[in-house]
Structure formats: structure tokens, C-alpha cells
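Task: sequence design from structure.
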């Protein structure tokens, strides 16, 4: 792997009340690629080796902490667990902010960097966010890759109900207890054919804790997800190159979500991965980054 230029962690004011922590990899003159992480996940969940691999393939990679995550701004607005259960059952509730607001955050970061448009990649909630970017700000998105995500239609991409109590459980505030809980949950939703080494999961959980936990922020993320609109019809309007990647063993977002996303986007490619759960195993990085590069190249055809 080539030694890539990696920036320090920096901060960008993207609105009156949101400042995002971000980091870049690679040559700023390369194709800009914005990575958007999922529920409660800081940017370090995009592994640095994965980011360097993308930089090796000709991207200027930008990863960032979503609002209410890691070192980015914490928001206001109380969400009770009873509100989440009601939203889980009905799809209705008062969310402190929406996925559209979170999409605007990412585009605000591009503005801060002086980037008019970029390729976008999102995992889980991040997939919902990049879909929203493409629908609401088509001129800003060159290509889109949606990984282990869904359309917002309630009859697809459902979550294994057995996971909800774990998601609603209070976050452990003591470091060792948090790490043990996070490692156990990662194993629960991870890829059965590509089990993650305990050492890697432990290191990621320790680093996540050290960046700063935000339990109330996770609840606000969840409310934004549970009250999201059904984007199926709007996705039909997309004309950008799109790639959908989903694991066949995903318990967090059922594979029907990925199938429905791809079916809704004209000309999209669908990559279904046997034995992949709700994570991004290192064994799949090469094929996933190849798919991202291939999708971006469809937006930039060779003359």
C-alpha cells in the first residue's frame, strides 16, 4: 500500500449550531469521496487502512463524526425510550432533527473544503443520509454507494426485533463495561463468515470510548431513523451511478432493504455478499473499494 497523506483531525463549522470533526486521506486533487458513518458511529469506524486503500485507488477521502457523535457538536432535544418504542411501532414521533439535516451537515463540510460535488458512500444510517443527499441535492453528488442500508419503507430493511432491547439499553459509562458491551454487540450483528478478531473489536471500542460517548445523541439518531420518510419513489428520480452493497446475513438491516434500494434506483448495481452481516470485514475491503471505484468511474467515463 502506498503511503498516503493523512491530515490531522480538524473542525468545520457547517451551520450555526453544528461543528464537525473530520479528517482527510490522500491527494486533495484526486476525486473527492465523502464517507458517512451509521448510528452512533464516529468516523474512526471507517478504518484508517480502508481509507488509505480508497486513497490508493484515486480518491481524496473525507471521513467525519456525524453531529452528536465523537468530537462533533452535541445537540439538544430529549428523546425518551418510550418515544423510540412508539416510533419503532408506528414510524411517527417528534425528532429533534432529521436525516435531511444530517445530509446538510455533510454537504456543509464539502462547502468548508471548497468542494462543489463529491462521490458519497454511506453505511447503514449513513446510507440513508447519502440517499437523502442525492435526492435533495442532486448536483452535489457525483456517484453514490449505499452499504447495508434501506429506503425508509417500513416493509423492507427491518431490524431483528431481538436487537431493540440492546439498542435501548443505557450506555455503560465505565470504560471496561462499555468496551465489553460494545464488543459483544459487534459480535451479535457481525458477519458470521468473517468473524472479527476480538483484539480489533476491543481496540475500536476503546478508541470509541476515548473519543467521547453521547448516549442521548444515539437516541436522537435513532429517532431520525425511525421517523424517516419512504424514499422509494424519490430514488426513482436519480440519474447518478449508484452501487448498493448488502450482506445476506444482516440482522440490523434486513437484506430486503438493500434489494429495495437497488430496485428503486435506475441503473444501479447490486452486490449481495454471502455471510456478511452488519459490519465491513477486512476480508471484503478489496472488493468493496473496487465497487466504489467502479461506480465512481461510471460518473467519470474515459474520453
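Answer:
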Amino acid at each position: 500500500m502506498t503511503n498516503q497523506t493523512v491530515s490531522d483531525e480538524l473542525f468545520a463549522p457547517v451551520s450555526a449550531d453544528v461543528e464537525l470533526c473530520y479528517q482527510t486521506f490522500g491527494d486533495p486533487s484526486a476525486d473527492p469521496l465523502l464517507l458517512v458513518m451509521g448510528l452512533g458511529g464516529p468516523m474512526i469506524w471507517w478504518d484508517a487502512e480502508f481509507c488509505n486503500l480508497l486513497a490508493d485507488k484515486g480518491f481524496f477521502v473525507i471521513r467525519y463524526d456525524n453531529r452528536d457523535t465523537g468530537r462533533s457538536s452535541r445537540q439538544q432535544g430529549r428523546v425518551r425510550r418510550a418515544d423510540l418504542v412508539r416510533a419503532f411501532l408506528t414510524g411517527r414521533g417528534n425528532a429533534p432533527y432529521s436525516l435531511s439535516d444530517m445530509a446538510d451537515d455533510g454537504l456543509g463540510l464539502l462547502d468548508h473544503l471548497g468542494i462543489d460535488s463529491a462521490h458519497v458512500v454511506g453505511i447503514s444510517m449513513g446510507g440513508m443520509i447519502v440517499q437523502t443527499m442525492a435526492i435533495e441535492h442532486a448536483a452535489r453528488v457525483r456517484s453514490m454507494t449505499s452499504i447495508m442500508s434501506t429506503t425508509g419503507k417500513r416493509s423492507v430493511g427491518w431490524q431483528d426485533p431481538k436487537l431493540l432491547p440492546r439498542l435501548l439499553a443505557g450506555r455503560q459509562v465505565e470504560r471496561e463495561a462499555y468496551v465489553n458491551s460494545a464488543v459483544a454487540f459487534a459480535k451479535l450483528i457481525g458477519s458470521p463468515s468473517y468473524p472479527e478478531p476480538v483484539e480489533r473489536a476491543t481496540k475500536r471500542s476503546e478508541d470509541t470510548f476515548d473519543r467521547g460517548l453521547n448516549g442521548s445523541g444515539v437516541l436522537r439518531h435513532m429517532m431520525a431513523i425511525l421517523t424517516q420518510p419512504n424514499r422509494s419513489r424519490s430514488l426513482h428520480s436519480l440519474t447518478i451511478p449508484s452501487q448498493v452493497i448488502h450482506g445476506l446475513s444482516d440482522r440490523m438491516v434486513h437484506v430486503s432493504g438493500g434489494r429495495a434500494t437497488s430496485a428503486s434506483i435506475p441503473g444501479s448495481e447490486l452486490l449481495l455478499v454471502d455471510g456478511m452481516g452488519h459490519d465491513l470485514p477486512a476480508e471484503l475491503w478489496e472488493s468493496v473499494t473496487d465497487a466504489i471505484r467502479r461506480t465512481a468511474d461510471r460518473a467519470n467515463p474515459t474520453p
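The chain has one domain: 10-299.
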